[in-house]
Specification:
The complex is a heterodimer. Chain A is mostly helical. Chain A has helices at about 5-35, 40-55, 60-85, 90-110, 120-130, 130-140, 150-170, 195-215, 220-230, 230-235, 240-265, 275-285, 295-315, 320-325, 325-335; strands at about 185-190, 190-195. Chain A starts with a helix and ends in a 12-residue tail after the last helix. The chains are: A mainly alpha, B alpha/beta.
Chain lengths: ~350, ~600
Amino acid sequence: MDLQIAAILFQDGIANGAIYTMLALGFVLIFTTTRIIFASYGDLIALSVLTLHALQSGRLPGTAVLVVMLAILVTAAEAWSLVRLGEFRKLPRAVSTWLILPLLPVAACFFLRHELPYAGQIALTVALVMPIAPLLYRLVFQPIERASTLTLLIVALVLHYVIAGFTLLTFGAEGVRTAGSVTGQVDISSISIGIQVIVFVLVATSLATGLALFFSFTVSGKALRATAYNSEGARLVGISTRGSAVFAFLLAGAIAAIIGILIGPTITIYYDSGLMIGLKGFVGAVLGGFVSYPLAALGSVLVGLVEAYASFSASSYKEIIVFLSIIPIVLLRWIGARHDVEDEEEPA
Amino acid sequence: MTMFAMVPSTTPHPQLLRATLIVTGAMALAALPFALSSFSISLLNLVGIYALAALGLTLITGSGGVTSFAQAAFMGIGAYTSAYMTLRLGLSVWIGLCAALLLVGLCAALMGAVTLHLGGHYLPITTLAWAVAAYMLFGNLTDLGAHSGIGDIAPVSFFGILLDRPERAFYLVWGVLVLALIGASNLLSSRQGRAISALRGGALLAESLGVNPFRVRLLLFVLAAELAAFAGWLFAHTQSFVSPSSFDLNTGLQILLMSVLGGIGNVLGAVIGSAAVTLGRNAIQDLLPGLGLNAGTLEIIVFGVVFILLVHYFPRGLSPIIEKLLPAPSGDDLRIIDKDERLAFSRATRLEDERISVLSLRGIGKHFGGLAAVDDLSFEMRPRSIMALIGPNGAGKSTTFDLISGLKIPSSGSVTFLGQTTTGKPAYTLIRRGLSRTFQHVKLRPKASLIDNVMMGAHWRMRAGFVAGLLRLDRAEEHEYRRVAMLALKEIGMDENPLALAGNLALGPQRLLEIARALASDPVLIVLDEPAAGLRSQEKQALAKLLRHLRSQGLSILMVEHDMEFVMGLADDIVVLDFGRRLAAGNPTEIRNDPRVQEAYLGGAE
């Protein structure tokens, strides 16, 4: 490996790292507010790519069907729990939040899909994929919000199979790549940098900065932080922790959609590719213990670099090396941590 | 009232019923290959193999907050190792088995050692990544068929009998499974089983009983992995074919589904869960082509939806149903103590030097961010005395308690117990030094009997390890400490029905039971966290009487308590905390007359 190849691989690694960093943002956002290690997060990315591809080919994306089904199920569940509590006055709001709002992009998709420009396709993809995350939360996780972290993780992982199975039914088994890849180089003195890398890094840093600003300067952001810090305490001062959770999932859904749009032109995505993408992002987030944004980002960049160099020197073992790097990462985490006894009682 | 009156008169029947059940079950099992088709038998063989892997999870998930997504991966490592040994090196299947167990054991020990110190969810997460890596590794083994797998793996030969047909292999698979079930069931009712149960009650409980959570979880994780390795070996040599897809993450999750479905309360759950999943999958595969759907697609959707619904509506799986069907645990003979025999407090009475302080805190502090929960707190405790720690809400009593019992690490200062510094020592080492505690929110194992709960207190005094528990080599020791536990129950006046379940007691008796558990550890000092909270007036009087009696037996007692009347009538010394600092210290009369205490409690409204 000469220096030039090393430099190219470094760029690849940074590009991967930027993607994994965005994933890690989503993981940390969701974990801190809900204790859910959202292992099926990558599926939203795969859905985003498949949706954009369908829109580009003028077809109705299967995502629309998924959103409709989820919205109906969630609205039914929500209405049922409101009726049981006798809170009929809250019904219209529940219907507009959980049914009408998610169905707007579906309707847009139904009527406009043939005449959309590229930017419109992207916007519609985000609007379609984003609500899936909070809908899944409301349907699958909210009823078991008090379950142990472990149970939540298991459910999140199992959810992948349901989503992937559904994606297979609606999108088919074919792999897709979206159009609209960013190519070209920028030469700065003697080093040439791919524009794609620059775009990835820019999007990742602006997302991270945006989140940081949001957390520091907005009421909803502060409510999310309060929930993450101590959900019991947040509830006591009048913050709706469920509202925070829905909001965190919504943000994470948007991030996933954006990731899908970025990586769509660069790799072929199949109905079940989400798991692998998600798990790689996951490995990086472990360094931050799913709670620290900066450490998660650092871990993600490390994983991206490991993947890039491994794909050059041992390409068929690339993924194995990435996944096994979780062991040194956990070791690093262990060295950094000194804990009081944690307590989580299991049900009898 | 004597013990003898309380022994249930039906004692022999459950044992007889149990024996009959076992014999009939075994005979029915042995007859199956003659009754069923070859196809059904090979399906049953798969049920048995997966049940073995699921049994590992039933054990490990029982230990609180830990599970493994890598059971299928460990099966795969076992299967591939043995396949390599027999196919490529021409060695015997038994050497293949040893190699499989060795390799899987090493992998599991390494993963566990790295991740389990971190507690919580790091082990499951690591097994997840590991499971994916192992699956990909199998696909890269070009010498063993890479992605398409490899066949012609030799069947097991058992004393010259070649187990090459499903009907023959059936006896091997189910024989191994039955032995494993017996071993697991023995383990769960042994000292280590009680440690596992304590760990399910949370790390706080486990550590306070002298159980090292790391060690228990590590051993269980390795044991679970070894069961999976055994299952993988059986898989390779009964199916004679291995391919990566048999050991992917999906399979790992299906094994997890089996153990969740069966429930973690009962070892039989693993078998029932495995049967339900394996046969259910087979039914789906038969049914679906007729519906014009890809079987694989619907299989994973059905599997996922069933799993999620199960967690929502039946988090304990089928185990409550299994428990109802099984005969109640046989009433062991508990006429094991004499009428006037009393519990001996050997360490407390042996405490020679009356002048040395039992417990002393020097300048201890605990800060959470900028907030000092406890600040520069010092006090000494005389031996054979009752000391109370009081203070308004938020005064730092509970934090002080956690600092004394080693659950929190102080930011400054030191704790000395019987002349030895305990600051920074792991919490689970304190009980063997003579410090035993109870909890403000009672931590008992509700599904365990009174005597089993009390025996948890004697955990550190006992020796039996995993192997002794599996093979039931621990009987003499068990008998000895059942006596200790009965005597401890007698101290609190609850020795009449030792097999009742702790979860069925009212709060008062539960608090007493926690004290009995502490007594079974042969303590020098017992530390009680709000022992009178929620008790009725009569119960408080009984508690005070018990504590005075224990003091007269040489025990030292430290308690955090809100109930002033209770404290004033009982304590020898009182330390008052306010805002994490020591406000006053002295005997009840001095405290009662201290203006600062009055102000802290009554807001100065004299």
